Amino acid sequence: MKRNRKAKILATLGPASSSPKIIEDLFVAGCDIFRLNFSHGSIETHRSNVEIIRKLEKKYDHATCILADLQGPKLRVGSFVNNEVELKKGDSFILDLNNELGSKKRVNFPHPEIYENLTPNTIILINDGRIRLQIIDQKKDSLKAEILNDGIISDNKGVNIPDIILPINSLTIKDKSDLIKALEMDVDWIALSFVQQLDDIIKLKDLVNNKALIMAKIEKPSAVKNIDQIIEASDGIMIARGDLGVEMHAEKIPIVQKNIIKRCRIFGKPVVVATQMLESMITNLVPSRAEASDVANAIYDGTDAVMLSGESAIGNYPVQSITTMNSIIENVEKDKNNFNLEFEDQELSKKIDNTDAITNAAYSIAKNAGAKAIITFSVSGKTTIRMAKERAPVQIIGLSPIIKTARKMQMLWGVNSCHSEDSANATEMVKIACTIAKNKQLVSADDKVIITAGVPFGNAGSTNLLRIAKIISKENLT
């Protein structure tokens, strides 16, 4: 399946899109990665969607990526007598461990493990920041707070606590159960919600045990403060602007987004920009101008991928949302004034190895020799990841004899990832590379391509070979 763009599209599956027809329509319209949101939906639905996606993969002969997004330790208040109450600025309000239904005066807050950390003056945000409280008295079983603004609070609303690393496990009991099931489904990426620090990623990696790649969701200020450590330990980053936008001032989010994209580029890790990108398309056939600009700016910044959430999961126009996002990306990438994605990687310049040298050379030759594509043979996918980091001006075709690797690499900017047979020698490698590129209509006769691989063939982490080949019209392409 040929895409006429380099940035990728993630689409979240949900009630509006969990059918064979809609999933296929999403794929044809431009979805590169399917997101299973384990905060919603049953395990049976997620498993069924995986089966549908894998059938599509075979039908279109196109390695397709699946990301499982774990719910994480979302804090919530309990329920109220009449489902909701109105709070007044200046009044006091108590969060406690009492299981009785809440009132104007108090509500259950069933998270005793964090009470000792919520000292006087701590700010608590409820219902996406619509209610702001400030702690004025702390006890082991209750927190007395002042209400900072008028507002409505209702059953089970989410709670955010900015600027504090909370003593909670990043993986809940539900997450651990969902993780086991997601790995049984053979998903390609696992996204971890509410990451706070490096240790959260390390714990998840131990559980996953290399069965999938790890994506850290950045949605807390503490994660932003620890961003370099988190990027280095993770396989990819998602800038989840929903909860992040609650816990940080809105005017800081664009700055954080740009900085994280830049840091991910430096570390050579894929980055996804997510949340409310085309939010109005949940109910409208066209996006707002601000939303179109939001998607465009993420592409100008060099993000690997952009994500749809409610637009494709519960919206009235899931397929049209993909089509719209696809069109925005294509138009930005055609812009002659597009942001120059080249950059001087001075921070890591001293860590150059053979693979870096080969990918740097492939990038330079592709520009100078007028090559139409760079083809990377990679068992582990690491060479393809490093090639994507270069943001080459041509199509990158990532080949791997391991289908799992081919699926994972669909997350990367500019990479058309393909499952290929293995090669025994350089001549066979060139033939396989040129045949796949031609059959998938990624190149045409007389086009030049750059091919990278490792000798001996089939060994991960041994990229040391670079070839220039010419596509010919005959069947034998060597």
Mean pLDDT: 91
Tally of DSSP β-strands: 22
Coarse structural class: alpha/beta
What topology, given as strand order, has the largest sheet?
A: 1-2-3-13-14-15-16-17
The top-level CATH class of the largest domain is: Alpha Beta
Helices, by number, come to 15
Oligomer: single chain
Low-confidence stretches: none
Task: Tell me the CATH topology of the largest domain.
Answer: TIM Barrel
Roughly what percent helix? 25-40%
How is the biggest beta sheet arranged? 8 strands, parallel, barrel
CA distance, first residue to last residue: 24 Å
CATH architecture of the largest domain: Alpha-Beta Barrel
| Shape designation | elongated
Write the layout of secondary structure elements.
Layout: E1 8-13, H1 20-29, E2 33-37, H2 43-60, E3 65-69, E4 75-76, E5 84-87, E6 92-96, E7 106-108, E8 123-126, E9 131-138, E10 142-147, E11 151-154, E12 158-160, H3 173-184, E13 189-192, H4 198-208, E14 213-218, H5 221-225, H6 227-233, E15 236-240, H7 241-247, H8 253-267, E16 271-274, H9 289-301, E17 305-308, H10 310-313, H11 318-334, H12 354-369, E18 373-377, H13 382-389, E19 395-400, H14 403-408, E20 415-419, H15 426-439, E21 448-454, E22 463-470
Parallel strand pairs: 1-2, 1-17, 2-3, 3-13, 6-7, 13-14, 14-15, 15-16, 16-17, 18-19, 18-21, 19-20
Antiparallel strand pairs: 4-12, 5-11, 6-10, 8-9, 8-12, 9-10, 21-22
Helix pairs in contact: 1-2, 1-11, 6-8, 9-11
